[in-house]
Structure formats: C-alpha cells, structure tokens
Amino acid sequence: MLKKISLLLLVVLTITMTSCDEDFLETTPTDAIAAGDALSSPENMRLVINGLHKIMYAQNGLIPGGSNSRAGMQYFIPMFDVISGDLIHSARSNGWMRSELQWTTHTLETSTTVEQLWYQRYQIIASCNSIINKVEQDGLTKDANMNDILGQAHAYRAWAYHSLVSTYAKGYIIGDPSTDPGVPLLFATEAPYTSQPRSTVQVIYDQVYQDIDTAIDYFKVAAPSDNKSNLDLNTAYGIKARIALSAGNWSVAAENAVLARNGYPLINEAGWKSGFNTTDLSEVIWGANVISTETVFFRSYFYYISPTFQGSQNRGNPKLISKEVYDATPATDYRSELYLPMAPNTNGSAANDQGGFGNDPNYTDAAEFQAARTAIEDAWGVTSRHNQHPYMHVKFRQANPGTIDPDDVIFMRTSEMYLIEAEAEAMMNDIAGAQAALKPLGEERDSAYDVTVFDTKDKLMEHIKWQRRIELYGEGFGYHDHIRWDEGIDLTNSGAALVLYQDGFQQDKPSLNDEWIFKIPQSEINANPNLSAADQN
After folding, report:
1. Residue 506 is assigned to a structural domain of this protein
2. Is residue 131 located within the same domain as residue 49?
3. Residue 453, in any domain of the structure
4. Integer Cα distance of 115 and 99 in angstroms
5. Which residues contact 325 (CB under 8 A, 6 or more apart)?
6. Of 21, 138, 502, 525, which has the highest C-beta tally within 10 A?
7. Average pLDDT in the chain
8. Half-sphere exposure of residue 208, counting CA atoms within 13 Å on the CB side?
9. In angstroms, rounded to a whole number, what is the distance separating the alpha carbons of residues 221 and 237?
10. d(Cα 296, Cα 11) in Å, to the nearest integer?
11. By the 8 A CB rule, do 48 and 131 touch?
12. Structural domains of the chain, count
C-alpha cells in the first residue's frame, strides 16, 4: 500500500509562501482536526467538505515523495486546453506545461501530471466515501444540514469518478463502454492503491449517474447555500448535464443544462470584459472563492493563463487563441475585443521567430510598434515587463493586474449550459430546439447574431464547436470536447509553432489514437495487486 488518505489533509490546508522566489513554495496544514474526530459530528463532516473545496485549488503533496507543483484545478483547467491545442503557448518561457503541449506528459506513466490528477480525484472519493458510509452505518439524522453534506459528498464523488473515467479511459461515445476498461471503483474509506481492478467504463458511468441523482435528491431538501464554492442543486444539474453529454445521452444533457442555469443569468458585455476573476459574476454557478491567505502564488490559475500576472510564465509566454477561431469571429461580436490579433510581437524568444521589432510582419514602423504595445498596456493592465504577441488573449485578467494577488477560479458557467443544451438538441436533429438554445447566448455576445442561418445539424454543430472555443476559451473543456467530437489536432493554421509543439502539433482523432487516453500512474500499478502492466493504457 502506497499510503492511506489522511482526513487531516481533507479538513483544511492553508497555503503559505515562505519566499518571493517562484520556485520555493511550502504547504502547511494549519487548522486540522484529528482523523478520529473528523466524522464525529455534522460540523466536523462539513469541515471535511470544506477541505474538498480547498483541494480544488490548493497545493497538496498527495503522493509520498511527490511535489506541490499542481494546485488542483488551477493547474488542470488550463492543462486540458493546452493538451488539445486550444490554449496556445507563444514561447518556451520557463517550461510550465511545455511537456503537456508536446504530448510527453499524459502519455508517460511516471509523470507528475498523471499521478497528481489520479490521486487528487481518489482523495476526494475516499473522503466522500467516509462521510457517506458513516451516515449510513450510524443511522445519523438526515436534517436539512445533513442533506446538504450528503448532497455535496455524492456530487463530488460523481464529479471525481466522471473526471477519472473520461480521462483515463476511452471516450464513452467512441468506444465500447460495456467492455472498455475504466478505473477502479471503490466505496471504502481508504485510497485505491490496494483496492480494486479496473471496472468497465459502463460500470463507472452507472455509478456516476446514481451518485449525481442521489445528490440531486438530497439537495432538493437541503439547506440552501449562498457560497459558490459549495456544490448545490444547480451544480449537481450541471454535473449531470456534463456526464450525459459525454455519454451521448442527449435528452438528459439538454434537460439538466436548462435546470442548472436557472437563476444564473448570462453576463453582459461589461461582465465578459471584466477579467473572469471572480465568482460574483452573475452566470457563475460553481467556483472557488480564493482569499489572500489561501493563495498559491506561482501555482495559481492566473499564473498559468493571465497576461497580467507578475510571473515569468506570463511575461515570457502570452497565451494565444487559435487564428482560425478568432478569424471566424464577427466584428459585431464583442468577444473579439478580448483577443488581440494585432498585438505586437515583442518577445525576441517567441517560438515563431517573429519576435521583436524588425521581425514582426505587422509593423514596419518602430513608433507604431511601440504605440501598439503601450495602448495594450494602458487598456488591459499588461505591464511593461510583459511581452505581447499577435492573437494573445486578455480574457483572464487579475482584479489587481501586475501583481501576484490571488483571484477566484470559475468551474461552471451558464454559457456552458446553453451550449450543452444546443449541442444535445442538434445531435437529436432538433434544429429549432438547438437554435432556441443558441439564441440567448448568441444575441447577447453579437449585436448582429442571426441563429436562423444555422439550419442543418452540420451547420449547427460547426457553429457550436466554434462557440465553445471562443466562449469557453481557457476554461478547460478542449481535451474532452475533442474526445466527444472524435476530433484530432492540426495546428497548421492556428498560429502555434511546430518547433515548440512537436508531437502536440498534430494528432489523429481519438477513435484511432489511444494516445489521447492518460496513462495510469505507474505507482498505482506497482502498489495495487489488482492491477498489472497489462492494465496500462
């Protein structure tokens, strides 16, 4: 056995920085309770749930001898868009996610990425099992408070298993779920390192559906929450919509997407241009409320993605949107203003060899080159220390740009739910239904939007794919979208540089290419007697 999950780690972890150096960070548990007491009362169970909220964005040394280099979803959200080529890097910079974009990380069974993603999800599952089992075994009273705790436990478990099975196994739609190997399924309170063999993809999906339906039932009679870090009824509907979409269960996906967004109106133009740095935005259904004492500094979401964060990853490597996606954006769509095709290429180390005045083909006059740079700095909070690059985004910006201050991390928005509904209706050949789902989002973003031009299933699906890529850019959906659509990668016309992307520049579609499936950590195979080398993806 590698190690058992410690409830200490699941209660509260406070991240402290002991140096200003980006490469020297430390984690310290500061408000933990004894493992034996963690389930002794509803109040302590809620502390465990709160620990799960924190795991979503905190640094956790989950693996003996491992690192704290992956701060939960703050790392994995941008990573999933990097792997698929939807969030484009412009330079080598300091190396963060270079292996991901080159496809040498998720294809390596000993990589930190595949280990941390696996063990983080199973740590969440083990904690949920502890709560669920304790309540059932002891016959504890299920009042409104306990219903909320159980709802969150079941919803988290559904989310974690769905994340695992859709990442470490073949895609449901493109595979044979009844026979394809999934992931170990366990209900005990210890980690899975000596637990179970791989269940089939179908068995895992059956459990995921059961858990999310149970969560929904609990939430319907639970105490309401006004904290978007908590999972609630809307979140559970949204998770169910995602699960159903990945499985091609179109009617369930559409129905739950509608329920999930109820009460969360679309943000307007001012909201879309505000930086996506707070869960206070009207359409945020679920997200992490990060406070200053809980920052992970140079392991944060904004460190990896924001053009305003004061870190070497951003200063040397502004992130780009695909030229193909941007060039398809109408001028009447205000989202086009958050991607900058004419930003000057100021980085002499840019991967496309066009960095620095004299190399950038967009500018032949030095004054114009500098004026363009200054205008972007003034408009968006990009500092003079940050490089710029054509097609860079300014979608994600800090509330306090030019600092290392923390900001919230968004997990689920209403816009996604409109797009889930639209895709599901299109896949059911309900043209009018898909158009009706797209209309509110399209008309909010584009003053000249006309949904009636998308009058066939093929036109709708192409438009929905484009909408997801521009609306949900940087929000972590690219990898699983490619799998669901059975779509490969070809970055030839994207603006990405082959010399940087290497194997990640072009990949065959997932149904023909098992390299899309994450490797199971070798440490898991070594420690779990129910797994062997033959179980490796």
Report:
1. no
2. yes
3. no
4. 15
5. 466, 469, 470, 473
6. 525
7. 91
8. 28
9. 15
10. 17
11. yes
12. 2
The pLDDT of residue 5 is above 60 = no
Q: Is residue 437 part of a domain?
A: no
Tell whether 320 and 399 lie within a shared domain.
yes
Range of the domain at 219: 7-68+106-224
As a whole number of angstroms, the distance between CA 470 and CA 467 comes to 5
| pLDDT for res 71 | 84
Element (H, E) at 413: strand 409-413
User: Cα separation of 261 and 212, whole Å?
Assistant: 17
Inform me whether the pLDDT recorded for 317 exceeds 90: yes
Q: Does position 3 have pLDDT exceeding 80, yes or no?
A: no
Q: Are residues 205 and 306 in the same domain?
A: no
List, for residues 49-61, the tens digit of each pLDDT value. 999 999 999 876 6
In the block, tokens 């054509």 appear at 390
pTM: 0.94
Residues 31, 130, single domain; the answer is: yes
Would you say residue 243 has pLDDT above 80? yes
Q: How buried is 457 (Cβ within 10 angstroms: 0-12 exposed, 13-18 middle, 19+ buried)?
A: middle
- From the CB of residue 149, how many other CB atoms can be counted at a distance below 10 Å? 24
- Report the distance separating Cα 245 and Cα 419, nearest Å: 11
Please give the average per-residue pLDDT across 128-141, as a whole number: 92
Q: Which of 483, 531, 508 is nearest to 170 (CA)?
A: 483
Q: What percent helix, strand, coil does the chain show, rounded to 5?
A: 50, 5, 45
Is residue 193 predicted with pLDDT exceeding 60? no
Q: Residues 296, 58: contact at Cβ < 8 Å?
A: yes
